[in-house]
Specification:
The chain is α+β, with helices and mostly antiparallel strands. It has a domain at 72-264 and 309-380: Orthogonal Bundle (Cytochrome p450). It is built from twelve helices and eleven strands. Helix 4 (118-135) packs antiparallel against helix 8 and helix 6 packs across helix 8.
Length: 384
């Protein structure tokens, strides 16, 4: 049975995924928002779909069931399994630690003196520390886990991403075994406890995959957001002292989340697979088709946002879709905001004359990871 919904001014076009397979690309705000809540599309292909289109060539981003003969557990159940680990209580408890590690990293940059790289000296160690701490990864293992995590989503070399994905999941399996014997106050232990209560989530592979996915998503996406925000703040006029005001900081962070990276946008949006025939305006999406929701384009929709293509730190109405919408809203959104506020609320107090080191034209785009951004963001400042 074919189902449809009316959409005004939709931008739905045929295109290709980062893997080169056919896909529908949806880029207008209203249709993206609608499809984010549509039960007829799913993160996994329908079990009846033979040889579904690939989203990317990176092994960890292959959206398929490990056991094709077993129906996937309900999305809402998987979401509840993860959401318990990102509760408001846990995020509040984490705030002092995030603030402290941010201050330490900025202090180390300042002591070492310029120049520095925002990604390697601040964004990467901060996000790696926080997500590793949440997952319960021992300190001595975090560097190798970070390297596997980064390599597992490399779009340039499937062999590299495949080896890293295998190493990361083998490590997570060993860590899960340890958590079964020595439970702790961390996400892995949360997942295992939740699993005991839900027979549909009994698969060890499911927990391994979720742990690996949380590890790379919790680092790579946040690093790129810090990279993006720093670039935007250093290339646009803004009252840096005002960022000490939490209300001002809130608006700035939301605009950083909305505005695509000026140097390298996301390589692609959010992948979904149609589980029924769907008519969207003049487009006919067939059951089994890959649908990519372009969040960057949606966040620049001129029908929704005034002066949509400009970075406006004082923007008040900002219903961006960077963390999704509705029942599939990103469970890690509060954590990402926590880290962004810690960085942008602190760094200009310590380094008020912070600036990009070199010509903007020399900055290299990061094109081998879906999140985009820069290969590095060199900065400098005057010594005190």
């Amino acid at each position: 049975m074919e189902l449809k919904f009316e959409a005004v001014h939709t931008v739905v076009r045929r295109g290709t995924s980062p893997a080169g397979d056919p896909a529908w690309i949806v880029s207008d705000y209203r249709t993206v928002k609608k499809l984010l809540t549509d039960e007829r599309i799913n993160r996994f292909p329908h079990p009846d779909t033979a040889d579904p289109a690939r989203f990317t060539t990176a092994e960890i981003l292959q959206f398929r069931q490990l056991d094709p003969d077993t129906p996937p557990p309900p999305d809402d159940l998987i979401r509840r399994m993860v959401a318990t680990s990102f509760s408001a209580r846990r995020m509040r408890a984490l705030q002092p630690e995030v603030q402290a590690i941010t201050g330490e990293l900025i202090g180390t940059m300042r002591t070492a003196g310029p120049p520095a790289d925002i990604r390697t000296d601040l964004a990467e160690p901060l996000s790696s520390h926080v997500i590793s701490e949440l997952l319960g990864i021992p300190a001595e293992d975090r560097e190798k886990v970070r390297e596997w995590s980064d390599a597992s989503v490399d779009l340039a070399d499937p062999a590299v991403s495949g080896r890293a994905d295998q190493a990361l999941k083998e490590y997570m399996n060993r860590l899960i075994e340890d958590k079964l014997e020595h439970p702790a106050e961390d996400i892995l232990t949360d997942l295992l406890r939740f699993q005991e209560l839900e027979p549909q989530l009994c698969s060890r592979d499911l927990v391994i995959g979720m742990a690996a996915g949380l590890r790379f998503a919790g680092q790579i996406n946040t690093v790129t957001l810090i990279d993006r925000g720093m670039y935007l703040l250093l290339t646009n006029p803004i009252d840096r002292a005002a960022l000490a005001d939490p209300k001002v900081l809130d608006h700035v962070v939301e605009e950083i989340l909305r505005h695509p990276h000026p140097v390298q946008r996301r390589i692609a949006g959010v992948p979904r697979y149609a589980h029924a025939d769907i008519e969207v305006g003049d487009a006919y999406i067939r059951k089994g088709d890959l649908v990519i929701l372009d969040l960057d384009d949606a966040n620049e929709d001129r029908e929704i946002f005034d002066d949509a293509e400009s970075f406006c730190p004082a923007r008040r109405e900002n219903p961006h879709l960077s963390f999704g919408y509705g029942p599939h809203y990103c469970v890690g959104a509060a954590l990402a905001r926590l880290e962004l506020k810690a960085v942008f609320g602190s760094i200009f107090g310590a380094l008020p004359d912070l600036r990009i080191d070199g010509d903007l034209e020399s900055l290299r785009p990061r094109q081998h990871q879906l999140s985009g951004g820069l290969m590095e963001l060199p900065v400098t400042w005057g010594r005190n």
